[in-house]
TrEMBL record:
Alphabetized PANTHER family for the sequence: 6-PHOSPHOGLUCONOLACTONASE (PTHR30344:SF1), 6-PHOSPHOGLUCONOLACTONASE-RELATED (PTHR30344)
Assigned GO CC terms: cytosol
The UniProt record lists the keyword Signal: yes
Alphabetically ordered keywords of this record: Carbohydrate metabolism, Glucose metabolism, Signal
Pfam families linked: Lactonase
GO terms classed as biological process: glucose metabolic process
Family named by the database record: Belongs to the cycloisomerase 2 family.
The keyword Signal is assigned to this record: yes
InterPro entries xref list: Cycloisomerase_2 (IPR050282), Haem_d1_sf (IPR011048), Lactonase_7-beta_prop (IPR019405), WD40/YVTN_repeat-like_dom_sf (IPR015943)
Protein's recorded name: 6-phosphogluconolactonase
SUPFAM superfamilies to which the protein is assigned, alphabetical: C-terminal (heme d1) domain of cytochrome cd1-nitrite reductase
């Protein structure tokens, strides 16, 4: 009987562990936070447990994994404004803690976004304050070299605010909120060069902030911070063209708002966007043949200032980082309709980036 109970207990532990996946949370450390936090997320129930501080770090406000998930990279804002901001490389330990490998200069002020290419060889960061974009080569041990390229988007008449950048094959796309443009760079002889001034003309200064690229690279969905809208773009033989434009706000909402984050669902049938002010997630149904969108829901985030959100690896849950209310809200996703249902929320200090 004791053997049978032991086997049942062991099976329960193994099954529970199989359901759990790590979630890392980047934060601003201006208040209660100390750095990057680590949780266990149950992909069956949507529960968050086992909060631990993985690494003390100064305002690690955006984080990303290497493709093999052995390393993590963070952009940091120094609490001492007289000192330069920087990028930190970490080794991910088996227990979820992060061991610092090295730090390099961000070559700008106010770094706010970081991403890595599929090979894990190049990292790009966006410096909002200075309007610069910095590229780094990685080493075999996961550490970073000093910046190999720095792009300055400022002009004599316009102030740049680079807000996000993503690799897609040999392309590098950069959303510049200040210059009201999304730029395309292409890799040539191991260096990136500007392919065009902007992929499309953005009318009425909507302020492109973040974007999501379809798996085949044909469609780019851009969330606009000032315009509270999504600009849908299609790649053509001769470049890019706008195919759709949609508000992220409920038609009855009349207050102030700033668009923030955007993600396609795993199956690309739905698109999600966050509103800071309305404090909502806007849900869109996507036509996979034409790439166009139809809004089907605006739902409260049960918090304040949803700067970032993410979908869990199963695609069954959506988690929102509410910066000002210091909580993470968990929603279930209806597989058929794409609509969200609020489940619960968890107190987390100043969350601004969620990473599965």
């Amino acid at each position: 009987m004791k053997l049978k109970l032991a086997i049942i207990t062991l099976f329960a532990v193994v099954f529970t562990n199989a359901q759990n996946t790590p979630l890392y949370v980047g934060t601003f450390t201006t208040e209660d936070s100390e750095g990057i936090y680590h949780y266990q997320f149950n992909t069956d129930t949507g529960e968050l447990t086992n909060q631990t501080l993985s690494a003390k770090s100064s305002s690690p406000n955006f984080i990303t994994y290497s493709p093999n998930r052995e390393y993590m990279y963070a952009v940091n804002r120094d609490t001492d404004e007289t000192k330069p901001d920087y990028v930190t490389a970490f080794k991910v330990e088996d227990n979820g803690s992060l061991s610092e490998l090295n730090m390099v200069d961000s070559n700008g002020k106010g770094p706010c976004h970081i991403s890595i290419n599929k090979k894990g060889t190049k990292v790009v960061i966006s410096n909002y304050g200075s309007g610069t974009v910095s590229l780094y080569d990685t080493n075999k041990d996961g550490s970073l070299n000093e910046a190999s390229q720095i792009f300055d988007h400022n002009s004599e008449t316009e102030k740049s605010h680079a807000h996000s950048a993503q690799f897609y094959k040999k392309d590098l796309f950069v959303a510049d909120l200040g210059r009201n443009a999304v730029y395309q760079y292409q890799l040539k002889n191991n260096n990136y060069s500007l392919e065009s001034p902007a992929i499309i003309k953005m009318e009425n200064n909507p302020g492109p902030r973040h974007f999501s690229i379809s798996k085949n690279g044909t469609y780019i969905y851009i969330i606009n911070e000032y315009g509270n809208s999504i600009t849908s773009v299609k790649k053509t033989k001769n470049g890019f063209e706008q195919i759709d434009f949609d508000s992220t706000l409920d038609e009855n909402y009349k207050g102030n708002n700033s668009g923030a984050d955007i993600h396609l669902s795993k199956n690309e049938r739905f698109l999600y966007a966050s509103n800071r002010g309305e404090n909502s997630i806007a849900v869109f149904k996507r036509n996979k043949k034409t790439g166009t969108l139809d809004k089907i829901q605006n739902i409260s985030v049960h918090g304040d200032w949803p700067r970032n959100f993410t979908l869990d690896p199963t695609g069954k849950f959506l988690l929102v980082a509410n910066r000002r209310s210091s909580n993470i809200s968990v929603f279930s996703i209806d597989a058929s309709s794409g609509k969200l249902t609020f489940l619960r929320d968890y107190k987390v200090p100043n969350p601004v980036c969620l990473l599965f």
